[in-house]
Every structure is written in structure tokens, then in C-alpha cells.
Amino acid sequence: MTTASTSDAELARQLDSLAKYFGPLQVPEPGELPRVQELCSVSDPFRADAAADELFVAAMREINAWHALRNPLFGALWKEAGAPDPDSVEQVAELPYIHVNLFKRHALSSIEDDAVALRLTSSGTGGEKTEIGFDAWSIGAAQRMDAWTVKALGLIDVERPANYLVLGYEPDPRLTMGAAHGLNELCDFAPVASVRHALRNTGVGHEFDPMGCVDALLEFAAREEPVRIVGFPALLHSVLERMGTMGVPPLRLPEGSLVLTGGGWKSHADRAIGRVEFREGIERQLGIPGERIRDCYGSVEHCLPYIECAAHHFHVPVWARCVVRDVRTLEPVGYDEVGYLQFVSPFITALPAHSILMADLGTLHPPGGCGIATPWFEVHGRAGVRRNRTCAVAAAELLEVR
Q1: Contacts of 291 (CB under 8 A, 6+ apart)
Q2: What pLDDT score was predicted for residue 120?
Q3: What are 340's strand-pairing partners?
Q4: Which of 92, 91, 88, 67 lies closest to 79, judged by CA?
Q5: SS3 of residue 370 by DSSP
Q6: In a 3-state reduction of DSSP, which class is residue 112?
Q7: Secondary structure E strands in 21-139
Q8: Nearest Cα to 263, choosing from 336, 186, 353?
Q9: By three-state DSSP, how is residue 297 classified?
Q10: Exposed, middle or buried by CB within 10 Å (0-12, 13-18, 19+), for 367?
Q11: How far is CA 184 from CA 96, 202, 388, in A?
């Protein structure tokens, strides 16, 4: 388990580095993608109006043409669908889409190798694995949208350094898992006073250290800085169980502490507990209030971030739309009905994941109840009986070595 203490100069440097998420970006071909550029420069993630809808549709027309020209598979799908040219948000559901599993079996890039700025995978060992090369625009736009969302939800704190417990992988230059990359980026949204990682780098892999996590929480509870716990929920649940087994009394972490989980339970679904029960356990054992316990949803293929609001809703941001499809017919269904989740967003130029059907079941709900003006969705879990190996699967399997 790693520990890093930070000087005043280092804290100042960290705050300056946060600006990298909010700086200007340019699409790879401005002449082809002006509306994509415009849409992805909207800094309010929860803007909802007719002009935003019109801009989204125009951006989707551009990105469809982009991938149809550069990716043979999507080009064939697009032509077979009659080269659709939507003129309303409702028609976005009629555009061709690709199932997420196809990216695990085929390299579906829309860019040349020399345009790849970052390669990420969906898991570290064995099984079905997505490996994607992102261009600078795609990964940069995703990071900027993540930062805008975190800011809009009030989860950035530039004033107070935080002690971080990262329930994920200790950095390793050989590690390319998307979740490892994303979790460590979450440490940028408040200055780092110290950081501990639950999955230790052994030199030949990673090893889960629950006792080290318990020790870190005990240490952090005795300090003044808020605590930020980020990572896989299965690992956090295991740490809380270990605290109970050891007879550690409930802690009260400092005011302003935060939990951001992501990745689901995957291979440890048999140990999973309900979301409400999970939050109640965190409140009881760590003293963090429910509105400061948030979950995140996303994938390496579709790396646009979805983060719960205080009411625990996954809102669809201005840069995306969510479609739910019937599990038998694959036809779109309306609000409040269960089906496969499909996400549509024109930001990604690296691969044709701008219209992607997920393996997760979910429900889309209309705006309301929390003050945010965009629709929101809930995730019910993975459809089918065959397990896809994801970052969370790989991490959860390390729970067996305790």
C-alpha cells in the first residue's frame, strides 16, 4: 500500500494541474466536425433546451459521416440502414448501433495508429478484453466532460486537501486498464494530502490489502482533512466487512468526506447488497452522509461519465442521449420500462462507439424529483448468464486472496 504526503508547493502544483481538464480542445478535423466541437464545448452538463437538442442532432450527423467514411463495419451498417440523416432527437434512436461485445472481439478503430494518444483495456488478465486506442480529442473530451460533471454536482473541492483511499490499482506503467486510469484521475478533484491504494503493486501483479485499508481509515479518521474514497464497491464492501469482523467501532470521518464508487459487483454478485443497504452501511461505519455517497457508471468503450446526483440518479448529460431497447424485439421503449441500455454521443472520433448497445439492463426516467432538467436512468444489472470480464471483475477476483 502506498502513502504520499504532500508539501504546500506540491498542493499548489496539484491545483494548477486541475486546469488541464477545463482547457480548450480541438476536434481532429474542424472542417468536418464543427458541431461536434460546439456541442462538446458546452460546459453545463445538465443543459436541456431545444437549441441543445438541435445541436446534438447536428453533431450526430457529423459523427455518423465521420465513422462511415473511416470504419468499414460502421460504414456498411450505416449504408444498410439507408444512410439515415436525423433531423430530430427522436430519430436518433433509428441510427445504427454496435453491441459492446463486438469491441471485445474486434479492433474497430476509426483512426490511424499514429493518431493514438492512449491505449486502454477493459481488464488486465484473461477473458474477453476490450483494447482501445484513443486519439487526443476523444480522451481529452471525455476527461473534460468528467470534470464539468463533477464540478456541476459540487464534488470539486479546491480549498481543502484530502486523504484518498483508492479502492483500485496502485499505479504501474504497464497497467492499461481503463478503470485504473479513471480512478486515479478522480484524485485530481481535491488536492492530495495523502493517498493509499487497496490493490498493491507487487511487481508481478496486484494484491488486495484489506488490513492496510482498515489501518488507513483509522489513520484518516484521526486527521482533520476530509477523506475521499474512490473505487470498486466490492472492495469497499469487503473492507467494511473486515472492520466488522475485527470489532472496529464505527468511525466518523471528517466533514466533507466523499465516496465515489464505480464498476459494479460483477463476479461477486452473490455478495452484492442493495444500493440503499450499501449506502446505509457506509453511513453507519464511516459517518459519511448518504448524499455524499455517489456511484459512477461507464465503460472503456463508452468513456463518457455518468455520476449520480444527490438523489442517486444517473442523469444523461447534454452531450449524450440514452435509449432503452426491448430485450426481445430490440425496439425502443418509453420511460419507466426495462430493457437494454443504449448510449448515443458524438464526442468519440477514435472508434464507432458513438451509438453503443450495452449488455446492461436499465430503465430511463423523465426529469423530476431532484431539480436537474435531464432524464436519468437506473441500472438493473448485466443481462444474460455469460459473464464479460471487466475491470471490476478482475479487481473483485482479487478478493479471493485475503
Answers
A1: 310
A2: 79
A3: 325, 361
A4: 67
A5: coil
A6: coil
A7: 98-99, 118-121, 131-134
A8: 186
A9: strand
A10: middle
A11: 34, 18, 23
Asked whether the CA dihedral 17, 19, 24, 25 is positive or negative, the reply is positive
How close are the terminal C-alpha atoms of the chain, in Å? Answer: 14
Which residues of the chain fall short of a pLDDT of 70?
A: 1-17, 122-130, 172-184, 264-272, 382-402
Among candidate residues 319, 357, 352, the one with its CA nearest the CA of residue 93: 357
pLDDT of residue 282: 97
| Amino acid at site 377 | F
How much is the pLDDT for 397?
A: 41
The DSSP string of 382-398 is E-SSSPPP-HHHHHHHG
Q: What is the pTM of this model?
A: 0.87
Our CA angle for 327, 330, 332, nearest 5°, is 105
- What does the buried/exposed string (b/e) look like for 41-72 if buried means 16 or more CB atoms within 10 Å of the residue's CB? ebeebbbbeeebbebbbbbbbbbbbbbbebbe
CA separation for the pair 369, 10 (Å, rounded): 41
Contact 161, 191 (CB under 8 A): yes
The full DSSP string for 131-190 is: EEEEPHHHHHHHHHHHHHHHHHTT---SSS-EEEEEEEEPP-TT--BHHHHHHHHGGGSS
Q: What is the pLDDT of residue 300?
A: 83
**Helices 275-286 and 233-246, axial angle in degrees (round to 10):** 50
Phi, psi at 197, each rounded to 5°: -115, 140
Structural domains of the chain, with CATH: 141-398 (3.40.50.12780)
The residue type of 67 is H
C-alpha cell at 99: 453491441
Alpha carbons 378 and 393: distance in angstroms, whole number: 20
